[in-house]
Amino acid sequence: MSPSFGIRTGFSHRARPADGAGGTRTWSALLALAFVLAFTQAACTQSTTSQTESEYKPEPGEAGKDVVWVPTDTSLVERMLDIAKVTPNDYLIDLGSGDGRTVIAAAKRGLTAHGIEYNPKMVDLAKKRAAEAGVSDRATFEKADLFQSDFSSASVITMFLLEDINLELRPTILDLKPGTRIVSNTFTMGDWEADQTERPSMCVSWCTALLWIVPAKVEGTWRLGEQDLRLSQEFQMLSGRLGSSSIASGRLKGKEISFIAKGVRYVGTVSGNRMSGTMVGRDGTWSAERR
Ligand SMILES: C[S@@+](CC[C@H](N)C(=O)[O-])C[C@H]1O[C@@H](n2cnc3c(N)ncnc32)[C@H](O)[C@@H]1O
Predict the structure, then answer these.
(1) Which of 213, 242, 271 is the last residue of a domain?
(2) How far is the CA of 95 from the centre of ligand 1 (A)?
(3) Is the dihedral of CA 231, 234, 235, 238 positive or negative?
(4) Which domain holds residue 258?
């Protein structure tokens, strides 16, 4: 059976503290509690010491700050990199990098890659594995909280978190550079539909790779030739009008825009307040300026 992610708040720092103490306990109960806590702490210290002396071997399901550790199947790691169409020019950041497998796999493909991971023991393990793989120069790791981290320099972001975490990150992700690729293992972005979904047959559990490409922001009115192009945008989906005609099949893929108006398919590239391209099937070009 697949290890369960459990309920996020079961491991979250945001969980409301289990309460119920509040002044009703007797002194003897408190003394007994203090004794138990001291004893437990001593036992924990001893077990941690003996664990760090041998190699740290995390178990799937191990508690994490906002989500437990469950490793991505290695076949899915490769598929996630494939659907992001990574090249050595990319800079990849894995949010919650665990034992470093995605970062290391990316570095083996020639990318510079970085893992952000809250658990310091995981960070050390990932660094050790990167050294063993001979990619420490391109695969780096830091102990940090992904919610406090700036990942805007990445051209590819990978993650295996939870849907509510993805949703919390979504506004920040939508403000990243258009064209940034986001790849998630299994968990969706709510009503932001994935641009591509893949399920490799060799994978055993948690086997869905989802890709989103951060769309350019084009909502508003543009002047295209002698007509107004009015665009409404929901993530990568576009609707609106060119002059008095509705547009159809409007879509963005990063900075690439396409739509059909008056039977003509427009394809082009958005660059700030200007977009331009060609009319498919017509021997012509088009451009539009934001009004
Ligand atoms: C499901 S595991 C995925 C590990 C790795 N990305 C992979 O695909 O194999 C999620 C990881 O996120 C880490 N994590 C949880 N909350 C975090 C936070 N707020 N900041 C950074 N890492 C976090 C956990 O410790 C765990 O290693």
Answers:
(1) 213
(2) 7
(3) negative
(4) 220-290
